[in-house]
Design goal:
4 strands; mainly alpha
Length: 543
């Protein structure tokens, strides 16, 4: 019997030991504890950020609440016109003299930091971006507050990972923790925060990352609920689907919302393209944009700031059809001008806003055509929120959960899933990517084509070349046309050059002095670097 017991214990130890070695070797206990700290920091950051918006809003609107449109109607017209421009002047000065990249960083930068270890989120830029965004939104710029909070949460997490000197996989996990905690605290949506971190930031579901991300999201939700209260961001009536004969209408709403999402992104991209080609000093750019937003707000004060007051009114069917249709155009235009003018802010809230207006207008039209069958247009507004936001963000699953947790409308699951899926599919067919990925691709970072494409386009020759020794004489190039690689060439170019020349190694030169060899690039080193990066990506995704 004792022999069997010893044998059983030996088998158990043999089974458990390698798992424990992997668990401890990847420093998971440290990551779990750090996730608590990240959750606390991100929640406090989200609370302070919202308070900062309210403080900047108080001098010109006289209120710290989210009733911005109501307060703007009561304010003097010149105040509404000039407040965004005054805020824009401070934003322009801050960007010009205090921000290294001359812009406030956004969610796309968090995705880039996850994909490229060389791109670090510094605490200085994170706090600076949060300040710019809070000032922008507090003085009337038309954008969202969730994107800046996500970046702030990720920046706080990145600072902690550098302090703890964690391995790269653990750093990416804690980056996801910061994002999940920020979404959880900002929206009071802990489940959606967990899924958003996996779907948008990590780009895959990681069993190892799941536990710390849940810990961070839960901690942030507890702190946020202790401060703001435990209730949804939008308190709406209990809507129900009147008849399953409405399913075709839900599908049509999905197509309509997909079209709105597509046009919204074209507007953002086109306005940014035009703004980059107009030679205006950076300090003046937000001032001009602020004047344009203020002029629009004289007619449509609902476009100012985050816009949750108007979104809430659409969900409670308190807006007429004509106004909702006009606000779709006005809010999309104001947001495009805001971001092109270098104001800080995100696109999450504007997407929810446009979706609510689109769904509400669609519901009113459906009710007029089929009065006995159509559900309340407030229900269609909820569906529209999820559909437009899911398509723009490229996050249909987490966006669906966010709408559930924002409104408490779990009874609408069938209609919401169908509407979001169709809108996302339509957007994918036309754009082929989310707005975040468009921002990254405009910087030369391609992530939507898979890990192998990302690796060959983002690894540089400098990452695997062998530099010449100090005492080694640089070899002469045979001719001006001799095969060579530039130090900043991407891995894809290097692999093709090796294949074209048939050479096992090629000299490496710099673009400033293309006649001087600074090192050698070996084909075997290039292939080893590619294989290592690919294996690490797949191991992290499935472990």
């Amino acid at each position: 019997m004792s022999g069997l017991l010893r044998s059983g214990l030996s088998l158990m130890v043999g089974w458990i030991s390698p798992n424990l070695r992997v668990f401890l070797g990847s420093r998971q206990p440290t990551v779990w504890v750090a996730a608590v700290a990240v959750g606390i920091a991100a929640a406090i950051g989200a609370i302070v950020f919202r308070l900062a918006i309210a403080v900047f809003q108080l001098p010109w609107l006289g209120t710290m609440t989210e009733q911005v449109a109501t307060a703007a109607r009561a304010a003097p017209w010149w105040m509404v016109l000039l407040a965004p421009a005054a805020g824009g002047l401070v934003v322009g000065l801050f960007l010009e003299y205090l921000m290294p990249g001359k812009r406030a960083e956004v969610v796309a930068d968090v995705i880039e930091a996850r994909a490229l270890p060389s791109h670090q989120l510094t605490l200085r830029i994170g706090l600076g971006s949060a300040f710019v965004s809070a000032l922008s939104l507090g003085t009337g710029a038309s954008a969202g507050r969730e994107g800046p909070v996500v970046h702030l949460g990720a920046s706080l997490a990145a600072a902690l990972t550098r302090l703890l000197n964690l391995p790269m996989a653990a750093r990416r996990t804690l980056l996801g923790c910061g994002v999940a905690a920020a979404i959880s605290a900002s929206f009071n949506a802990p489940i959606a925060g967990v899924l958003f971190a996996h779907e948008v930031i990590l780009g895959h579901f990681s069993p190892t990352a799941f536990v710390p991300i849940v810990i961070a999201s839960t901690v942030a939700a507890v702190i946020s609920r202790g401060w703001f209260g435990d209730f949804p961001a939008f308190v709406v009536p209990q809507y129900q689907v009147t008849s399953y004969w409405e399913v075709p209408a839900f599908a049509l709403l999905g197509l309509t919302c997909g079209l709105v999402a597509i046009l919204f992104q074209f507007g953002l991209i086109g306005t940014d393209w035009v703004a980059r080609r107009i030679p205006i000093p950076l300090i003046v750019r937000p001032v001009i944009g602020g004047l344009a937003i203020g002029a629009m707000a004289l007619v449509f004060p609902e476009i100012l700031g985050v816009g949750y007051e108007a979104t809430d009114q659409a969900l409670k069917h308190q807006l007429p059809l004509t106004l909702m249709l006009m606000l779709i155009v006005a809010k999309a235009s104001a947001t495009a001008i805001t971001l092109a003018s270098r104001f800080g802010g995100g696109i999450f809230s504007p997407s929810l806003y446009l979706g609510a207006m689109t769904g509400g207008a669609f519901g009113l039209i459906a009710a007029s055509l089929f009065p006995d069958m159509a559900s309340s247009h407030g229900l269609y507004a909820i569906l529209g929120m999820g559909a437009v936001a899911g398509a723009v963000l490229g996050a249909p699953i987490s966006t669906t959960l966010i709408v559930f947790e924002l409104t408490g409308g779990y009874a609408l699951s069938i209609a919401l899933l169908l509407t979001v899926a169709i809108a996302n599919g339509f957007n994918k067919a036309v754009h082929g990517r989310s707005f975040f990925h468009w921002q990254l691709e405009s910087r030369g970072l391609f992530l939507s084509e898979g890990a192998h494409r990302r690796i060959v386009r983002n690894v540089r020759v400098s990452d695997f070349m062998r530099s010449l020794d100090n005492e080694e004489e640089p070899p002469p190039l045979e001719s001006d046309d001799a095969p060579r690689l530039m130090v900043d060439d991407i891995l894809e170019v290097a692999l093709r050059r090796f294949d074209e020349t048939g050479q096992p190694r090629l000299p490496v030169v710099s673009r400033t002095d293309p006649a001087k060899v600074t090192g050698w690039a070996h084909q075997i080193d290039a292939l080893e670097r590619f294989s290592k990066e690919l294996v690490e990506a797949n191991v992290e995704e499935h472990r």
